[in-house]
Amino acid sequence: MKCRHCGHELKWEFVDLFNSPPSNSYLSKDQLNEGEVSYPLKVFVCDNCFLVQIDEYKKSDKIFNETYTYFSSYSSSWLKHSKNYVDMIIPKLGLDNDSFVIEIASNDGYLLQYFQEKNISSLGIEPTSSTAKIAKEKGINVIEDFFNSSLATKLQKSDLILGNNVLAHVPNINDFVKGLKLALKPNGTITMEFPHLLNLIKYTQFDTIYHEHFSYLSLMTVQRIFKSQGLKIYDVEELQTHGGSLRIYATHIENSSIPINDNLEIIINKEKLAKLDKIEGYKNFELKVQQVKWNLLNFLLNAKKEGKTVVAYGAAAKGNTLLNYSGIKSDAIKFVVDASPYKQNKYMPMSHIPIVCEETIRKEKPDYILILPWNIKDEIINQLAYVKEWNSKFVIAIPNLEVFE
Q: What residues does the C-methyltransferase domain cover (predicted)?
């Protein structure tokens, strides 16, 4: 296997999470007696460019299809983050009614709706028809396709191209970034948000690894990829989203009007301190992952022995990685609650844990609630504050097992 950025032979295994089904392949009741397809979920690190990556076992057009069930608008914290971005970026870049914005992976219009409110023309690029349909109902212009260099040549050049949590999702990252350059105006800006590899390693966030994520990104590696396609990163911000993300700002290398911010050197120095520029920085991660699994299994076993009921909240992709790697089934976790009606009355892939509405928590009064999307745990805890009525406790498995009220 060769690195999908530099072509270097991949020799170093980062972590092996064994075989796993596609993270969003939720099942109907009729499908429970059918066979399920799973794919190896093994991650490598390139010792030349340090791109962390999985092999392309699951083709992107099979993942992001018409039955894709992730809708961004069901997280209030994510909507707030998106509105704050729009309110920030418009004055920062001097955008006005003559400007044009492209969002790649625009999902259900969760973000472009705020540009629409400001009367700024925009276009969404979204390959999943289920989410694109919702965006179109909001009056947002959407092209249902994957973004690449070929599509970029057909688009109106943009003052701003943005992509939130999409850079990790593309199998051909070089061609994707090439497309960004082709679709950008000479003085335009690109912003991309992605989970920071530094935090993934530091906080053992292995559940963010699944087949939709082809790459796991450091600033050093992203800077190298962008430079190879004629783009320069001129600023970067650290964000709290998804357990710690980066937002990069990039433009054409030829654009000399924008100075390079000192933030780049600060974050790159953090990465070097963690030895992300050496293979040593990636060793022993698998041992930490195994410890998370054993701690969770031990908790569930003890709860079972004590006759306690454990349920989960959030039928998120990261939850599927955690459950399937740990071998957890519905005999250990009774059900999973999710706010999205597109997931309710279905079952988690492989584990076959039923997905239900929140009212089931009030009815069943479980002893423990395992929060699977730990990145929005505060939002969930506030939402479920009423479980204190029967002394239910919350549980987080990552980075360390924690039980709290």
A: 241-399
Based on the domain organization, do 214 and 100 belong to the same domain? Answer: yes
CB neighbours of 302 closer than 8 A, spacing ≥ 6?
none
Residue-wise pLDDT tens digits, 209-235: 999 899 999 999 999 999 999 999 999
- Cα–Cα distance between 344 and 351 in angstroms, integer? 15
Q: Over the range 256-281, which residues count as b (16 or more CB within 10 Å of their CB) and which as e? A: eeeeeeebbeebbeebeebebeeeeb
Structure confidence by residue, pLDDT tens digits, 60-112: 455 554 455 567 777 888 999 999 999 999 999 999 999 999 999 999 999 99
pLDDT, tens only, 27-55: 999 999 999 989 999 999 999 999 999 98
228 and 356 share a domain?
Answer: no
8 located within any domain: no
Same domain, 269 and 289: no
Contact between 140 and 112 (Cβ < 8 Å)? yes
Q: Are residues 255 and 292 in the same domain?
A: no
d(CA 398, CA 50): 24
Considering the domain architecture, whether residues 252 and 290 belong to the same structural domain is answered as no
- Residue 98's contacts (CB-CB under 8 Å, 6 or more residues apart) are none
Q: Could you tell me the pTM of the whole model?
A: 0.94
121: domain range?
Answer: 72-273
